[in-house]
Amino acid sequence: VLLPCLAVRPSQEILWPLEVAGSEHLLVTAKGRDDAKEFHTAGASVLEAQQAVADGEADASVTEKSWDDYWLATSEVYPNCSLQTEGSFSVDEPLHVNDSCIWHANGVQVTVKQPMKFHGSLVLQGELHIIGAAALDGSCMRVLGNLSVLGTHVTFTGCENTNWDNDEAGSGGGVHVGGDFRLLRSTAAFFRCKAKVGGGANVRGHFEQRNSIANFE
């Protein structure tokens, strides 16, 4: 499947689960029993809300909220990233973040002169602006695991991936995601981003969005 400026892996799998089962949900990672219990509780609330709407006992907004709670309950829980949470900074050398983490960005502006690479999964929250200041040998941001954007406004502007020799490294101008890319209550905008495949974003796993807007210009 190839959307304008967004490349995703073709899939025959259903993005929304018909039955609530931790092992069958596309975005569940290995979690402890407490997390699994929370997951099942949240999933059960979705089915209960859907039945209530079907029976005329509740309106659709109840199901919407239950789905949102369900997504949050199944989101990865990681420590904070060791990255700036306010103001602005420039990436002048290749930046590597080895562990999965949550980046709480309060209007952070990042000028990217060298690629940013996250070797695990990344959760974004808040407001983040990524600006490509030079043509790169890769995406402005590369996430090898999953990328979850929760309650966030994130923009990628002027990211140009000039690696045309490597199919994977040359995919995605703004962001390359090795796992799944999910948006919840968020906006993600890509402006003037270029790459061999997926000028804005390239997703090797699944792309899911809920109560969100993804914009490519």
From TrEMBL:
Domain of life: Eukaryota
Record's protein name: Uncharacterized protein
